[in-house]
Amino acid sequence: MKKTLILGASTNPSRYSNKAANMLRKHGHDIVNIGLSGGEVAGAPIEKKGEVHTDIDTVTMYLGEQNQKEYYNYILATKPKRIIFNPGAENAELEQIAMENGIKTERACTLVLLSTGQF
After folding, report:
1. Where are the beta strands (DSSP E) in the chain?
2. What's residue 37's pLDDT?
3. What value does the mean pLDDT of the chain take?
4. 55 Cα distance to chain centroid
5. Which residues, listed in sequence order, are joined to residue 5 by a DSSP beta bridge?
6. SS3 annotation, 50-65
7. Please, are residues 98 and 77 in contact by the beta-carbon 8 Å criterion?
8. CATH number of 4-115
9. DSSP-derived 3-state class of residue 34
10. Collapsing DSSP states into helix, strand and coil, what is residue 74?
11. Alpha-carbon 95 to chain mean position
12. Which pLDDT tens digit goes with each residue over 17-70?
């Protein structure tokens, strides 16, 4: 299964990042939660930007464009195969940087991709 880094993870069950974490686990994916607050989501701790996980297949983005810049180098260091920009997280600058580094980008909803078997 695809190890997925959730950027913008939250313990709040009404947040889409929280729903995605739980759905990813339900579909058998390993997850890494990165967020500002501590806690745990779907059995995985919420980490702050620190340890670089280099076995990431997908980054699923739940941060708005204005909050993504500080994570650019971190994202590139994880060497993901793709970045999913969920609704509200679209970022043309990061998409361009990703493409220049051989990372596929997708403007899509992780929840929909999982629900329809397209993840």
Report:
1. 4-7, 31-34, 40-41, 44-47, 58-61, 82-85, 104-107
2. 83
3. 96
4. 13
5. 32, 59
6. CCCCCCCCEEEECCCH
7. no
8. 3.40.50.720
9. strand
10. helix
11. 14
12. 999 999 999 999 999 999 988 899 999 999 998 789 989 999 999 999 999 999
For residues 57 and 80, the answer to whether their CB atoms sit within 8 Å is yes
SS3 48: coil
Q: Any idea how long the chain is?
A: 119
- Token pair of 59 as six digits: 């980054």
For 21, the token pair is: 């974490």
Burial of 91 (0-12, 13-18, 19+ CB in 10 A): buried
> Residues 60, 110: contact at Cβ < 8 Å?
yes
**Whole-angstrom distance, CA of residue 1 vs CA of residue 37:** 27
C-alpha–C-alpha distance, residues 119 and 112, integer Å: 8
Tokens 């919420």 locate to 46
Is the Cα torsion angle 28, 31, 35, 38 positive or negative in sign?
Answer: positive
